Amino acid sequence: MSTAIEQLSVPASARPDRISQATSVEQSRAVAEVQAAAVIARQNPRSKQRAVAEMSEECALPFVAERAFYRYRRGGENVTGGSIHLAKGLARCWQNIAYGTSELRRDDVAGESEMSAWAWDLEANNRVSITFTVKHLRDTSDGPVKLTSGRDIYEHLTNQANRRMREQIFAVLPAWFTDQASKLCTQTLEHGGGVALGTRVARMIAHYAEKLNVTQAQLERRVGRAADDWTPADLAELSVIGRAIDTGEMSVDAEFERTLTVADIVPTAQAAPAADSPQDPDDTAPPADQQNGDTEPSEPPPAQTPKRKLLDQLAETFSAEGWDDSDDEGKLAWLSSFIKSAQPITRYDALTSPQIRAAIDEIRDPSGNGDNEGGKS
Fold it and tell me: How far apart are CA 189 and CA 159, in angstroms?
């Protein structure tokens, strides 16, 4: 039996003239182990009722549910699904499932490894596998970084292999089984261990503030409603997002956009006088360097784009019409309502130039008849 494996796994040109005794014993042991596992699986068929009961019991545990999902960003979109922890747990509940990964070849010159991941339903004799190449590179915000440390390469290969193995395990498990497990884990997250909803909301806000430096306002914009109106489903989603950030799968910036104020977009807006306000006599005085006889002009300010000028004018208009300078959230909410945006506007520079001009006109003359009475209700 070991000779057959040698013939299949190693080309004749590459086979050594003599195989060590340890290698021969290991090959024989591997064959015997697989044969024994298949025989035992046939002799001890799984019970679907028992598998479902065990899966339901496991998915009801908060610790399992919190680790049941992954989340990362690809192509500008968030990708989520069952994690490797969920896959292994379901394979254990379903029984008679074998899975694993292996490094088939490593090329240090090319900086890559050929890997294999597989899963095998020994009872149904359903086996799936995938072979793939992993570059010894880690993607960062500054571009790919070459890995040279043995530990870094090992961890990178393990991470990539586990992702493929996760998909192979899900491929041999029944779809209804995995779908039911995902729903039960979501329900467990929503239930929150029986803790009152208000307490869970407060804990979630505190966790994001202390661990991730995310404010309550950012969380409310992400969910789309005030914290007092959050539902168990909202908390479940925030729990998945928080764990993805904790594990490095997602970044805070990718999930929570920082709210930009008028001063962020138009730094000179607060300093600039309103369009219709009279100039102070001192505003026309020459610069200090010219008053002292130095005729060399000061460095000219950077040129403003047409959109930047409109944003500057929008900030001036808000101020002239009596809008509270600190109420940027209210201003953005009004702008979202005015342009009938399906999603709330979180950035001033997300507006187009025609929208900015129309907003300025609406604030100055909400009735459209030329009477400038202000647009804030």
Answer: 26
